[in-house]
Amino acid sequence: MQMHEIHETQEAHSREQQRRVLWATSISYVVVILDTSIVNVALERIGASLAGGVAGLQWVVNAYTLAFASLLLSGGTLGDRLGARQVYMAGLAVFTAASALCGAAPSLALLTLGRVLQGVGAALLVPASMALINGACASARERAAAFGVWAGLGGVAMAAGPLLGGVLIGLVGWRSIFLLNVPVCLAGIVMAARVAPQPRRGASRRLDLAGQAAAIAALALLSAAIIEAPAHGWRAPLVAGGLALACVAAIAFVALEKHRAQPMLPLGFFRDSVFTAAVLVSMISAFTFYGLLFGLSLYLQRERGYAPLHAGLAFLPLTVVVPIGSLLSRRAVAWLGPRALVALACLLAAAGYLGAAACGTTRYDLLALPLPAIGLAASLVTPAATAALMATVDQGRAGIAAGVLNAARQTGAALGVAVAGAMIAGRASIGAGMRVNLLIAGVLSAGAAWAWWRAWSRHAAHAAQSHGVKKTSPG
């Protein structure tokens, strides 16, 4: 009886710790996602206030996502090396200070600098938060449930962002969307301080500074070339040289990682077909979704003349289904399995993007009809792909694996915004550029469905082969 009571006490303590970790880490994901979606509604007012064109507004969005994407792998390593809780709290502190700088920025250059610093903070706190969740959950079922709640709250932030942004911008001004982060992040720091520290699982890991520099150069040069191409032309020395240097930096990054004893990006992860597919699908999902957010914001406010609040309401068909899908993802995985769920979600996204392209941009009511399918698909993909990827790595490498996944997502988001802006700037109207983006998104989403399905087929074949070898081996 005494042993039973001790066991029950331990289980109760474990559940309490899981709750503390989940709520503390969800704060970080909420502010990261809220900041992404809310900024899109503010783009027109930021451009008018600080004299920024389409390229300048792309940098306001991409300064954040580029810093986030390129530093995530180092953020994951730091979490493994120094302790996830400590790195998480440091990331929240940086994000808080950066948000205050964005809210007070007197120029587009300083606002962009503040966005870079926000990306640095996010790169520290997001992989650390995922490692904290991974370490607090003892079973795959608990882990999937926790990631579902985590992603669901992010989905709520995504849905609320445009509408909340529209209200705040209309009442107080665009600076308020950044200042809102300050009290939320401070609350997150207080909550995280109550979480028990987890053991350092990668204390011997070193930062790969050369690989980090190559990653930053590759992503920044590629995005800069795409953003500047409409103004200078694809054959201009500035653009062509930027693309060439980006390729050189990417090749150097792979070469460095291949020969490092402790690489920033362990290429061995990609021997697992499910891991590779989760990274690819997450990147494509972010590329298409955030490209749509950027283009739709400019279309609604610049071409149709919507006020921020009206634009926020117009986003609802896309965003209101996101928390629903995120919270239902766990049951959907149990019912269909991750292979079928993610493949069907990608096909649903493809149908939504192609349907929106077919409806055209002359009437918002027609354009809005396929938007719920896109939002639902994106919200189903994220938690299912995350849980599938995290199941392929051991606990000691959870931080770096989380960094790889989120780096893929943020790289996709940055490139999606860069390409969306380039398509818009290179067309006669924003609506015409948006239609091209929608067609590209539809094709990529269909390709993601095929890649995911094939990856699980290879995974099943490899597992069957390994089982057969073990079964027939002597002894």
- H/E topology pattern: HHHHHHHHHHHHHHHHHH
Question: In the CATH scheme, what's the topology name of the largest domain?
Answer: Growth Hormone, Chain: A
Count all strands and give the number: 0
Q: Structural class of the secondary elements?
A: mainly alpha
**Overall helicity:** over 70%
Give a topology summary.
Elements: H1 2-50, H2 54-82, H3 84-104, H4 108-136, H5 140-171, H6 176-179, H7 181-193, H8 209-232, H9 237-259, H10 273-303, H11 308-314, H12 316-319, H13 322-336, H14 338-359, H15 364-368, H16 371-390, H17 398-425, H18 430-472
Labels describing this entry:
475 residues, Growth Hormone, Chain: A, globular, disordered C terminus, 2 domains, mainly alpha
Notes on the protein architecture:
With 475 residues, the protein is mainly alpha-helical. It folds into 2 domains: 385 residues, MFS general substrate transporter like domains (Growth Hormone, Chain: A, Up-down Bundle), CATH 1.20.1250; 55 residues. The chain has 18 helices and no strands. Helix 2 runs antiparallel to helix 17 and helix 5 packs antiparallel against helix 11. The two termini are 42 Å apart. The C terminus is likely disordered.
Summary?
By secondary structure, the protein is mostly helical. The chain is built from 18 helices and no strands.
